[in-house]
Amino acid sequence: MPHRLPPPGPPRTASVAFAAFLAAALTAVPSGPAHAFTGDNHEDITRAALPWEPITLTAMADARDGAINANDHRPYFDVGPLHCDNADYLGPRYAPDYPRTRDEASTELLACIRTSVARFRGAVRAADGLVDADGKVRADQSDLSSPCAWDGKPGRAKCSVLEQLGRGWHQIEDFYSHSNWSDRPAPGPIGLDNPPGLERTGLAPFFDIRRYSAMKDAAWTQEARERIPADLATGCYPDIDSTGVKAADCAGRVAHNRVLNKDTAASARAKTGDNFGRATAGATSEITRQWNDFKAGLLAAYPDHRRGAQMVCALVQDDPATACP
Description:
By secondary structure, the protein is mainly α. Helices cover 44% and strands 0% of the residues. The longest helix is centred in the last third of the chain and has 27 residues, at 275-301. The model is unreliable at 1-18 and 27-34 (pLDDT under 50).
């Protein structure tokens, strides 16, 4: 999760081309057989959450080359909804003139959730290529003897599924680091430099990704909005928000850097109590939930000839052509 230490290079301004990319990132999934915790923290969280065999788990979780960290490479790095950024808010009792409304902050969080819903749908579709019509695992489509590219292009089905899941789970992990969902504020007045903490111990109810994936977007969006607590916030970061506008800075807003993020144990907010541990524990439990929900989604989508069960086996095993009879 660390916030994200920016890759080298000057910040970019929004452009028509990048706005088109943003629209695709928020709504599209591949056709055919597609700042944050530090890469190390994303890896630790993902490994702790998934009971997969080692080669497959490394393909998903590796700090530099795993699918879970693909969103931290440009151009994905610069898209706020891919990290649950910019849903910042302070209620009137803390900041009467705060420049973002509760509705605007919730809309930005919904943009983050929407990316995960799209990736879930894409992963379910891509899984169809893992097995044949009779439920036999396709060796050529489940082989990881060479690295996956994570480039959104058609390729081996297992790579496509892992990319969709990794790109959909990254921002969910980030949410627990970038928000005040589970943390507590430092002693002293609540305000821009010390926003309130919700101290929640359960999973965020608005990440019900599997159920949302089967609903019309307008319906799940309304439901999720109603589940967002009044004082929930994620930090402002100068990247592309869901409107396509890149803020020059975060002046006058609850900032990601130096204020709200718990991307590393050394982050300012992480030093209050066990805020870092609570963020990592929440993210780990959340990915366990997301994997269990994805398995259930495959079983429901592909019941004939045990195809769904074989898909799950092919995703977990390093040699599924042998291990999945």
